[in-house]
Specification:
The chain has 308 residues and is α+β, with helices and mostly antiparallel strands. The protein has two domains: 33-135, At1g16640 B3 domain (Beta Barrel); 145-307, no CATH class. Helices cover 18% and strands 29% of the residues. The protein has six helices and 18 strands. The protein has helices spanning 50-60, 99-108, 145-148, 151-158, 173-190, 265-269, and strands at 33-37, 46-47, 69-76, 82-89, 94-96, 115-119, 131-135, 161-162, 202-205, 211-212, 215-218, 230-237, 244-252, 259-261, 272-273, 280-281, 288-296, 299-307. It has a nine-stranded mixed sheet with strand order 8-9-17-18-12-13-14-11-10. It has a seven-stranded mixed sheet with strand order 1-6-7-3-4-5-2. The longest helix has 18 residues, at 173-190.
């Protein structure tokens, strides 16, 4: 599909430069696929190109292209993703645009100007489902569990800080979502006093750069504001079942702003269930750690868990 230039009119088709509607040169690639170029507002509304509208009408059983009509369409991918989205039709345009479409775009990390290929299936095979396959080579960046959790948990996941080498796959992010959800439930159940500021989860690899001697370093980006320069920290591992609560002294570096937690070895030696495994063991160099610092009226708490 060719790109529209700066002089294109609003609603103008990028393919034939007509006023959308039905293109006088309808076609599909291999009689089944078409591309959509994501425009600036693609998360709000994404238009079906006019040269593909006729085939979408037939495949999705729209009654009349000039009538206002909405269909529930299943967008599927080869990563076993299935999202039900609304496909809206008006006299001159057909477009996606609903919360599930926005979630689908976020799940795959779509960006403006990307080309997204959609597959209507084999026209020679009679199909009674309302599926459109979205052909994406890269895996999702977020798991389905992200869209089933609370708004507060999604905010935490979105703010997560990753250090070098600690990035999570979309499947591993299920553990991050679960950790943030467990923290939220813990705070509700125990009526934990309000946190000063916003939670910034940290995922990092335990190595000799951030764990040296008996001291663990937490990056400045994850240290809450208004914390005392020195103090004691409750270190709480929520897994499994009954939390393990330890105490460690800390100080905040005046030069870097990082938090330095002393006596961390006792946390390393605590035998707990490792996320991604049902085995209980001590933490090791090379493990990844998920943590969140809480600072409120009840004092400072480091919630953490170890991930393979």
């Amino acid at each position: 599909m060719s790109s529209s230039d700066d002089e294109s009119l609003p609603g103008e088709c990028d393919w034939c430069h007509g006023g959308r509607g039905l293109c006088d040169r309808p076609h599909l690639d291999d009689d089944r696929r078409f591309n959509i170029k994501l425009e600036e507002t693609f998360e709000v509304e994404t238009f079906i190109p006019c040269h593909a509208r006729r085939y979408v009408f037939e495949r999705m059983d729209f009654k009349d292209h000039e009538n206002f009509e909405t269909k529930k369409i299943h967008l599927r991918t080869h990563h076993d993703v299935d999202f039900e989205v609304n496909l809206y039709n008006a006299e001159s345009v057909t477009h996606f645009g609903c919360k599930n479409w926005e979630a689908f775009c976020k799940m795959y990390g779509f960006d403006e100007d990307m080309l997204v290929t959609m597959d209507l299936g084999d026209a020679g095979i009679d199909q009674d489902n309302m599926d459109i396959w979205v052909l994406v080579d890269t895996p999702p960046v977020l798991p389905l569990s992200y869209f089933d959790c609370s708004k507060n948990v999604r905010k935490m996941v979105d703010k997560t800080h990753y250090t070098d080498g600690s990035e999570l796959t979309y499947q591993e992010k299920n553990h991050l979502v679960g950790f943030c959800t467990d923290l939220e439930n813990y705070n509700i159940y125990n009526q934990t006093p309000q946190h000063y500021g916003q939670y910034v989860p940290l995922v990092h690899v335990l190595n000799y750069g951030n764990y040296h001697g008996d001291t663990l370093r937490i990056p400045e980006d994850c240290v809450p504001h208004l914390m005392y320069q020195n103090g004691n920290l409750h270190v709480l591992n929520l897994y499994p079942g009954h939390p393990t609560n330890l105490n460690c002294p800390y100080r905040i570096s005046r030069r870097s702003g990082d938090m330095l937690i002393r006596e961390w070895k006792k946390c390393m030696d605590s035998r707990k269930e490792v996320l991604g495994s049902k085995r209980k063991r001590r933490a090791r160099i090379g493990d990844r750690m998920i943590s969140i610092l809480h600072n409120g009226e009840s004092g400072s708490i480091l919630f953490y868990a170890i991930l393979l």
